[in-house]
Amino acid sequence: MTLQQIYYALKVTDTGSISKAAESLFVSQPSLSNAILELESEIGFDIFERTNRGVRLTADGRDFISEARKLYEDYLSLEEKISNKDVHRQRFGVSAQHYSFATKAFSDTVKEYDTENYEFAMREEKTSAVIRDVAEGKSEIGVLFRSDYNKDVIKRLLDEKNLEFHSVRKTSAYVYLWKNHPLAGKESLSYDDLKDYTLITFEQEGSDSNFLAEEILSDIEFPKHIIVTDRSTSTNLMIGLLGYTLCSGIISSELNGSEFIAIPFKEDENHPNQVMEIGYIIRRGSALNEIGEEYVRNLRAYFEEN
């Protein structure tokens, strides 16, 4: 068993597809398939069950991937320590879903420090990458949300990586759209109001992608739907296609400007609203350093002001 084989297996797990994994790894699909088959032959059981829609983990495969991920994360941590020559600059990183309030809290934090003496990083990521960044020590803090719909999956993923969730703010679903959208004048918006317009969501990965959505109400099927990978494209499509997204309603006008507004989602019997619990994740049992504590204070302060 080699580290490369483990890395390949992790990539297939995260993408849910051998073809997608091969594309991201810049290797041929047959080469990747053979590498996985050789690994399965060596360990004596199938890691993946192959289907027409991709792959999913077997029961044995789930246990194997959990342990293999810990092993690979330890390797990356060791490699980073060995290669990090700039020992005098303190590092601090935040990985977050595509939330302007997470970026606003980060910018407020960085202003308090001399960037010549610190190495700061702000990463907007897919949900699985946020979790992975914190588990691997790439970022000290991750910002995401949980709800009744996704909390069991989020808990399982955090437990697998020895992470813990700290709640900061609870809110319900809002509809985020362009200020000149035909629906912009309404006090609240229902499913029936939205069904003729296009929902915009951020791309996720893996077999649990629906539960890892950054948008609340991901269990409701909206007729029109487009997937994007960055906030700039999302806001452009809100104007160009009169699209909308679903969010917490906590928007940084300083960063997002005044071109977009948030309107409460109005539930009905078939489309109930949900509580969106926003929080941060850290390694279980670890304590925040001075910068991390400042970041969380800024995050809480922004929520209180808005």
Write the layout of secondary structure elements.
Blueprint: H1 3-15, H2 18-25, H3 29-43, E1 48-51, E2 54-57, H4 59-83, E3 90-96, H5 100-110, E4 118-124, H6 127-135, E5 141-146, H7 151-160, E6 163-172, E7 174-178, E8 189-190, H8 191-194, E9 199-202, E10 225-228, H9 231-240, E11 244-247, H10 253-256, E12 260-266, E13 275-283, H11 290-305
Parallel strand pairs: 3-4, 3-5, 8-12, 9-10
Antiparallel strand pairs: 1-2, 5-13, 6-13, 7-11, 7-12
What portion of the residues fall into strands of 2 or more residues? Answer: 15-25%
Uncertain stretches of 5 or more adjacent residues: none
Number of strands: 13
- Please write the string of helix (H) and strand (E) elements: HHHEEHEHEHEHEEEHEEHEHEEH
* Gross geometry: globular
Largest sheet composition: 5 strands, mixed
Average of pLDDT: 90
Walkthrough of the structure:
The protein is α/β, with parallel strands linked by helices. It contains eleven helices and 13 strands. It has a five-stranded mixed β-sheet, sandwiched between helices. The chain has helices at 3-15, 18-25, 29-43, 59-83, 100-110, 127-135, 151-160, 191-194, 231-240, 253-256, 290-305, and strands at 48-51, 54-57, 90-96, 118-124, 141-146, 163-172, 174-178, 189-190, 199-202, 225-228, 244-247, 260-266, 275-283. The longest helix has 25 residues, at 59-83. It is 41% helix and 24% strand. α2 (18-25) crosses α3 and α5 packs across α11.
